[in-house]
Amino acid sequence: MINLDQYIRDIPDFPKKGVVYKDISPMLQSPEAMRFAVKTFIENLKGEKIDKVIGVESRGFFFATLLAEKLNAGFIPIRKPGKLPYKTHTEAYELEYGTDSLEIHQDAIEKGEKVLVHDDVLATGGTALAACNLVEKLGGEIIQCNFLVEIGFLKGRDKLKNYQVESLLKY
C-alpha cells in the first residue's frame, strides 16, 4: 500500500495569491505511485465497461491515457480552445480564479458509449462539469468522473451530483 499523499506537493500562491496549488509532479516521477494510482482507479470502477476515457487538458492526459490502455478503451482529449484540429463543440465554465472553455472533437464519442471522465484535481467542479456537458452533448453515458485530488472546501463535488465521483486524495 502506497501513501499517495506523500507524492503531492503544495505550491502556495500559484497561479495567484491565496491559491494553494496541488502539484502532482512528484507522483509522475514515481513509477510505483503511478501504478498504484491506476490500479486504485480501476478498482473503483468495479468492473464497469468503459468505451472511452476523457482526459482534461493538460494534467488529466497523464493518467487518462494509462487508464484507457488498461481498460482497453479509446482516449479522448478535451482541450482549451484552438488546440484541436478538427470540428469541435465548445463549453464555457468558471474556475476558482477566472473563466475558460473546453473543446472536444465532434466525432470523438458515439451515442451510447460508456465514458470515464478523468482530471488531476477536482476544485470548484467547473472544468469537470464542462467536460461532462461535452460528453453528453455527443450522446456519451458518463459512468464515472475520477480525480487524483479533490479540494473539498471548494465543493466541486456538488456540481457533479448527477455523476459518480471518485477521488484518490481529499484535502
From TrEMBL:
Keyword Protease part of the UniProt annotation: no
EC number from the UniProt entry: 2.4.2.7
Pathway recorded for this protein: Purine metabolism; AMP biosynthesis via salvage pathway; AMP from adenine: step 1/1
Compartment(s) where it occurs, according to its Swiss-Prot or TrEMBL record: Cytoplasm
Keyword DNA-binding: no
GO-annotated biological processes: adenine salvage; AMP salvage; purine ribonucleoside salvage
Domain of life: Bacteria
Alphabetical list of CDD domains matching this protein: PRTases_typeI
Protein task: Catalyzes a salvage reaction resulting in the formation of AMP, that is energically less costly than de novo synthesis.
Family in the record: Belongs to the purine/pyrimidine phosphoribosyltransferase family.
Subunit architecture: Homodimer.
Protein name: Adenine phosphoribosyltransferase
The organism of origin for this protein: Salegentibacter flavus
